[in-house]
Amino acid sequence: MTTAELPVIAAVDGSWRSYEALEWAARDAVRRLLPLTIVHVRPLNRRTSQEAQRREAEELLAEAVGRVAQVAPTLHTSTLAPMDFPAAALTALSEHASLLVLGSRGLGGFRSLLIGSNSLTTASMARCPVVVVHSGRAEEEGAEAAEGTFSDIVAGVAADESSEAVLDFAFEAATTRPGARLRIVHGWTMFSSMLSGGPVFDRDAAAGAAERTLAELTAGRPEKYPQVEVVQEPVHGSASHTLVTASATAALTVIGRRKGGEELGFGLSPVAQTTLTHALGPVAVVPC
User: Fold this and answer.
1) pLDDT at position 163 over 80
2) What tens digit of pLDDT does each residue of 71-80 get?
3) Neighbouring-strand partners of residue 80
4) Burial of 127 by CB count in 10 Å (0-12 exposed, 13-18 middle, 19+ buried)?
5) Cα separations (Å) of 126 from 91, 93, 202, 253, 286?
6) Is pTM beyond 0.90 here?
7) Which alpha helices (DSSP H) does 1-137 contain, by range?
8) Residue 112: what pLDDT?
9) pLDDT for residue 108 is more than 50
10) What is the DSSP letter of 10?
11) Nearest partner of 116 among 96, 97, 130, judged by Cα
């Protein structure tokens, strides 16, 4: 099975946030012409018998399948119920997925947290792109998508090779949404201009250098994806504020994650972690 044929995986735990993520995943699987696998990870909990956990998982997954049937009745759907720690199970399953979708928080954890530990850990370690769906948008998106309310794809890029995977994912996502506009955001400062060999004290020249960086990063892609309207946005300062603000009305906000730093917790940059934590809509974290 090629990467293009691997399923979209949606994780559910019975929380309304996970069901919002499930509906988002179902719609995205239809757009991508991919099957959907619904996963409920049974916790390693000795206080509950395995038989009780199995029955609970079957009921939860049956409800999830029913919800998908309402959103996407023709979608091919399968289910899994592994027993493991949630982040560990989802990370392992991500090796055989095109996309992994989960809610920003589940049933556990502290209510004050903006994003749950399982969501953050999975997004930091998964082998495939992970979409974390922040609450409050699923029904609204489903009702208003036809009107173009959530038509923008927003991508945050850095001035290095890590942006290749982010841009590839963002352009492909835009092609699945007719009429979508792709906003490419790149944050720059006088210090970053100095590191890249640019002028240190000339703000206009530094801004021009940022524009050239964006042009270089996107070179060739508008021709490859002529159906996608592209807007390049060099932003003075950190891009995280722009990305968080844009996420409120974006169909999807796309950020990158460095490969190789997972074990040390260095996968997410400060901009990526801030965006993922405070976003107001779905965020895709792409291994770079």
Assistant:
1) yes
2) 999 999 999 9
3) 39
4) middle
5) 5, 8, 41, 18, 9
6) no
7) 16-32, 50-71, 86-93, 117-125
8) 37
9) yes
10) E
11) 130
